[in-house]
Specification:
The complex is a heterodimer of chains A (251) and B (559). Chain A is mainly α. Helices cover 76% and strands 0% of the residues of chain A. Chain A starts with a helix and ends with a helix. In chain B, helix 3 runs antiparallel to helix 4. The chains are: A mainly alpha (251), B mainly alpha (559).
Chain lengths: 251, 559
């Protein structure tokens, strides 16, 4: 029974090879609202399954989770499709939750960690949809210089990507910091693996920004509306305030 | 005092928020708002330093349960003034320099956030705040270096900086986690107290926590202070705006020296890590200086000069002269900031007229024509080798009678001697109608520099580390076996003096003028001109990783 649950939980808190299902599903779903729902709910289902049905976790699972996270972070370096990029980073981030699960972290914190990692990705999904509407596809290197033609969009994109890359004071930073603290209790190499995942995310994030924002001015395609910009800023500020609050909790 | 401590980083943060909210209304006035905030920040930092100098107790200020604790102690006060001062100069310079650039208000907003992050970094009272500020500095520098988004090169080199910094960030996080696990506290003052009480507490890794943490923090310091193998980003970031280069070279790269000073007790009890700092600093200083001499681009040359200076700073920490490293970083920050801000103007002016008077110094340095009549070599050799030792020993005796007992002081003395002797050695070949006057001028400048350096570094030591016992510990920790130390000093002296004699002989016999480049020389030339092929190696490695990632994606059908 428990092995069966573990196999299913490996779909939702992704473990390779079950992780391939989420990415295949995400690639098929094109609706931004559905994609956002998937990103929001997918890891929560995994957490519920693990907490409700698994009493003792095999010791190798956090390591398998870290290996999955490393593999998807590495693979994200070679991606040009922004939607797929978001899915790979999500897979990589959620796989790391196995470390917290292995350390018996409180369910509330697990839920918050997953949310903190998913919310900036949801913003990216909407930004990706905006690009698809303007250009027909959201690919890196297809059009550059968005900072010149769409400065509001570019500003928000930079902030969202920073949120995904676990930059302080976003909640993802504190989630990742907690995972490093927890992994250090298990093994130094596990902590180094989490650090390497972080490094690879940063590389992948910089690639994303370079492929979209940088470059000489192109033909104007309009910019994000002021209302949408302030909405994004409000969500990001909310995330940052939550992060600062988490900071107090960790200290 | 508590309010003052919190107000210092808060002023630039408020300025950044106001610029974000009101940039449409403010337009070019955002620069003045930002510069006024920088001025106010500088005033507040000076007030805190004055209070610290008068002997005020260490003060703390925090955000209650949300953490974010800041403190005012001698180290944070002195670094605060340096950062606020350089930031004010950079703000003032940028008002006109950046006026024609797109994203004028955004630039000042980022500059304010960078100032605030640096101020929080130096005054952080808990390790989490320090880690947060440390990360933010890297991210903001990435955004500032890539300010001109139309130039793909600026973002490319900003990425080099970002990824090197991130490597150091992760090492810092791991080091902090080791300390938190072992000593069970996030507070820095509390941690340093516990380290002094139980310096050999074992970490989860099975080695003393101080050793593991110091090693990891060294990597963080190496990445931020551009030490060898982690230095490539520094000379290539000139595509960013000049004021950012000035701020980076004058303030941000110094963070490595600050980190080592902030966690001084951890490093003092870390065993061989101080020796590692010395070796890494020495290698960086030599390679940075060699690469600086090989550049024909002023800004790149300045970049490598910074690398060399950072090497000296880390080396000073390695010999236990922690406070000297702080003095070094302040002195270097001020002159390097001025050089960067002036570089553009100098390059522009030099296109019309190089402005160099065709005097003795010019013919010597530029045209490389030595004097026809030269003073007797035996006399000059004696002056070259003995006078610097005499001046250095006297200056050190003036401030500390027992300095010969400290290996670190002897190492620094040794470097002072080489520099002084090299200076006089060079003067010897200069054309001058009155060589005696020239030599007297050179010697008096040397005396002023050495005495000033000795006195000021002594004052810094008293201010930053008033505990005499801890000072002794620092010097003891950086020492090696006395026999090995003496052998090293004698061998190094023989190599250097032998090198001078060889150079002298080659000049005298004219061998230098008719040499044909041998194979070794060509290899060395290729290595130095290609900057040891490090950029090529890193590019090859990263392309390999990208190829692997692409193959995996194809193999797993993009899922």
């Amino acid at each position: 029974m428990e092995w069966g649950v573990l196999l299913v939980a490996g779909l939702f808190l992704p473990l390779f090879p079950q992780s391939m299902l989420f990415n295949a599903l995400f690639a098929r779903v094109q609706q931004p609202l559905l994609r956002a729902f998937l990103v929001l709910a997918w890891p929560q289902v995994g957490i519920v399954l693990v907490v409700a049905f698994i009493e003792e976790l095999p010791g190798w699972l956090p390591y398998w989770g870290a290996a999955t996270a490393l593999m998807y972070a590495l693979r994200a370096l070679a991606l040009r499709d922004i939607g797929l990029w978001a899915a790979f980073i999500a897979t990589s981030a959620w796989s790391l939750l196995w470390i917290s699960v292995g350390q018996g972290t409180d369910t509330r914190y697990l839920t918050l960690f997953a949310l903190g990692m998913s919310l900036p990705l949801i913003l990216l999904i909407f930004l990706c949809h905006w690009l698809e509407r303007r250009f027909g596809a959201a690919y890196l290197g297809l059009y550059g210089g968005l900072a010149q033609t769409a400065p509001r969009f570019s500003g928000i994109l930079v902030m969202v990507v920073l949120g995904i890359l676990a930059t302080p004071v976003f909640p993802s930073f504190f989630a990742l910091l907690s995972m490093i603290i927890e992994s250090m209790q298990m093994n130094l190499f596990l902590a180094v693996a989490v650090g390497t995942v972080w490094l690879l995310w940063s590389w992948a994030g910089a690639n994303l920004l370079q492929g979209l924002v940088a470059g000489p001015k192109q033909e104007s395609v309009g910019d994000l509306g002021c209302g949408l910009m302030w909405l994004n800023i409000a969500v990001l500020s909310g995330l940052a305030v939550t992060g600062v609050y988490c900071l107090g909790a960790v200290v | 005092m508590d309010l003052l401590v919190a107000a210092i980083p808060l002023v630039p943060i408020l300025s950044a928020i106001l610029i974000l909210l009101l940039q449409e209304q403010l337009r070019h006035h955002s620069a003045w708002l930002s510069t006024s905030a920088a001025f106010l920040t500088f005033l507040l930092a000076v007030v805190v330093l004055v209070i610290e100098v008068t002997g005020e107790e260490v003060a703390q200020s925090g955000m209650g349960e949300a953490g974010g604790y800041l403190l005012a102690d001698p180290l944070s006060a002195i670094m605060g003034v340096l950062i606020a001062g350089i930031s004010l100069i950079v703000h003032k310079f940028s008002i006109r320099y950046m006026a024609e650039e797109a994203g004028y208000a955004r630039f000042f907003m980022l500059l304010d956030l960078m100032t605030a992050s640096l101020l929080v970094l130096v005054s952080a009272s808990d390790m989490l705040t320090l880690v947060v500020a440390w990360h933010l500095v890297g991210v903001l520098l990435y955004l500032l270096l890539g300010h001109d988004t139309s130039r793909t090169n600026s973002l490319r080199y900003a990425f080099w900086t970002f990824i090197t910094y991130r490597l150091g960030d992760i090492a810092l996080v791991l080091g902090v986690v080791v300390l938190v696990h072992t000593y069970d506290t996030w507070s820095i003052p509390e941690l340093l107290r516990l380290v002094r009480e139980d310096p050999h507490a074992m970490s989860l890794l099975g080695v003393p926590a101080t050793q593991a943490a110091a090693l990891l923090m060294s990597v963080a310091a190496f990445a931020r202070s551009a030490q060898f193998l982690l230095h490539n980003w520094l000379p290539y970031t000139m595509d960013g705006p000049t004021p950012v280069s000035a701020l980076m070279h004058a303030g941000i790269v110094n963070a490595g020296g600050f980190l080592i000073n902030r966690f001084a007790p951890v490093f003092v009890y870390s065993g061989d890590v101080l020796h590692l700092l010395f070796i890494m600093g020495l290698v960086t200083a030599i390679i940075g200086s060699v690469l600086m001499l090989a550049q024909n681009d002023i800004k790149k040359s300045l970049g490598y000069s910074t690398m060399g200076q950072m090497g000296f700073m880390i080396m000073e920490c390695g010999v236990g002269a922690f406070s000297l490293a702080i003095y070094h970083l302040i002195a270097h920050g001020l002159f390097k900031g001025a050089l960067f801000l002036g570089a553009g103007g100098v390059i522009g002016a030099a296109r019309h007229d190089d402005g160099v008077p065709k005097e003795d110094l010019y013919t010597f340095v530029i045209e490389r024509r030595p004097a026809r009549r030269q003073p007797p070599w035996l006399f000059m050799a004696a002056v070259t080798l003995i006078i610097p030792v005499f001046v250095l020993v006297l200056a050190h005796l003036l401030v500390q009678q027992d300095f010969f007992q400290k290996q670190g002081a002897v190492v620094l003395l040794f470097f002072g001697w080489i520099t002084g002797a090299q200076l006089i050695f060079a003067t010897y070949r200069m054309r001058s109608e009155r060589p005696g006057r020239l030599l007297a001028l050179v010697l008096s400048s040397f005396v002023v520099v050495v005495v000033g350096y000795a006195l000021i570094s002594h004052v810094f030591e008293q201010f930053l580390y008033p505990d005499e016992k801890f000072l002794q510990l620092m010097h003891h920790a950086s020492s090696i076996d006395i026999v090995w130390f003496d052998i090293l000093v004698v061998v190094t002296t023989l190599i250097i003096v032998g090198g001078w004699l060889l150079t002298y002989y080659a000049e005298k016999s004219g061998k230098n003028r008719s040499y044909s480049p041998g194979r070794l020389r060509l290899i060395l030339y290729a290595l130095i001109s290609r900057e040891f092929y490090l950029a090529d190696i890193y590019t090859w490695m990263s392309r390999g990783l990208l190829r692997l990632a692409a193959r995996l994606n194809v193999l797993l059908r993009w899922a």
